[in-house]
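[stage:ingest] chain + small molecule (3,4-dihydroxyphenylalanine)
[stage:ingest] validated
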Amino acid sequence: MQDLIEKLKAETAAFDIVDAQTLDAYRLKYLVRKGEIAELFEQMKSAPKEQKPLLGKLLNELKQLAEAKFEDAKARVESTRTEETVIDLTLPGRRGFLGAEHPVQKVLGDMKRIFLGMGFQIATGPEIEKDEYNFTMLNFPPDHPARDMQDTFFLSKDVVLRTHTSPVQIRVMLSQAPPVRVICPGKVYRNEDVSARSLCVFHQLEGLYVDTGVTFADLKGTLYSFAKQMFGSDVKIRFRPSFFPFTEPSAEMDITCYLCGGKGCRVCKHTGWLEILGSGMVHPNVLRNCNIDPERYSGFAWGMGIERTTLLRYGITDIRYLLENDVRMLNQFE
Ligand code: DAH
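[stage:predict] done
[stage:export] tokens:
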């Protein structure tokens, strides 16, 4: 009997209590009314009378030790359990996920800031536009190829999804007498296949300046200043003769490639130059269509693609990346 008590003493001492489960297992094995210690008390009843005082003493010792171990372990387990649930105020806070400006909006924002700084105001117009404003009043001849079904989304015979922001020029000049100094940012639509270089919906920024005595020198000065602020003070510009029905003369403006500084690289296709906008002096017919006397007033206008400029600025090789909303791409513009 004494051996049994010693054995159980060693066993309870060695029992490994690490969590709430092992604590409970220990209690059920040794301490409950039908547990192993209670069992020994039961056996003691049938021991010889003269041994009982000693056995009783030993058993009581065992019981006290086992219970003390239980209380100890219980306190330990409970204190670690509360640590898990208590809020640790020294931990760093949870970071919110902040969105980032889309690269197209970033470029558009820079363009707006530059022209607002020069005294231009922002004008907007509808994306669903009259054929008359999108083409006719901008001096497109009735049979001009741009009206063709291949370029234009017609909603009806007379209504189109605007193919450029130039009709906003018409709306502004119809509603406001010169001097006019506006930029018109917005979405435009072309009935074109989507490819690495073109989308069927994209953004343009249009500009219009009409006043007395406005010359081509004003056009050059304004767009040169824009180019330097947008692409860096080292940039050089050049104009190439071009054609638009609503301007005469018309010119396309190139800037020196800011990736290679004009030496030639992949982005500028080894020419050293990047085409960034179309421009020209407002055609007298357009002024006349808007009840502005071309003998008294003159003006210049320009239009540029925002996605195109974004591709050039960041050296992005496929315009479709701008629409995929892949965070691995967008994260680079935070
Ligand atoms: N509307 C032209 C286009 O979509 C761009 C443009 C060229 C606008 C010359 C103008 C301009 O105002 O003067 O390609």
